[in-house]
Amino acid sequence: MPEKFIDKLLTRGDETSPRVFINILKSSIMEKSESIDILNELVVINNDRIEGYETASEITEEMELKNLFTELAQTSHKCKRELMEEILKLDGSCAQGTKTTGKFFRAWMDVKAALVGRNRKIVLESCEYGEQKALEAYKEAIREAQEIFTTEQQTIISAQYASIKSDFERVKSKNRTLEAV
């Protein structure tokens, strides 16, 4: 963020009155705050993914799926660490916990499993839905942050989006393979 602030100040030329300086400083602080908020939203999404895959792993009795869900949770642990590093670089505080919708969704997974048994298809469909929601959140973050994220932050978020999209494709593929059988 400081480099953006300095760039803005230097491009002002002789307009460096105190009022211009204060306005640029306010803008820079607001961008920093917005960046922290967006990064924290993604931390919460990854917390939801981690807990969702832990729930899915508990529901299923199949070792193949347990291993898959462990790998997918590891993706989110990695993403979360990277996001938290960026938040700390901005002197922000990292979000804790999950979204209420994520908690509701995990409870719904438990209820479905109890009602219809530990059905592989239902567990995979639930995971596929969760991945779609995570991808939507990342798309929104990328759209919102185009103007305020540093190049490094944009690269990190884009790489995380690609990882989660790959995870989504793995879950979808497992689900489609099951449908073909």
How large is the share of residues in beta strands? under 5%
Span between termini: 53 Å
How would you describe the shape?
Answer: elongated
Helix coverage percent: over 70%
What is the SS-derived class? Answer: mainly alpha
Total DSSP helices: 6
Spans with pLDDT under 50 lasting ≥5 residues? none
- Overall average residue pLDDT: 79
SSE string:
HHHHHH
Over all CA atoms, what is the radius of gyration? 20 Å
Main β-sheet: number of strands, strand sense, barrel status? none
Total strands: the figure is: 0
Q: Describe it for me?
A:
The structure is a single chain. The protein is mainly α and 181 residues long. It contains six helices and no strands. It has helices spanning 2-11, 18-59, 63-89, 100-116, 120-145, 151-180. Helix 2 (18-59) runs antiparallel to helix 3, helix 2 packs parallel to helix 4 and helix 4 packs antiparallel against helix 5. The longest helix is centred in the N-terminal third of the chain and has 42 residues, at 18-59. The mean pLDDT is 79.
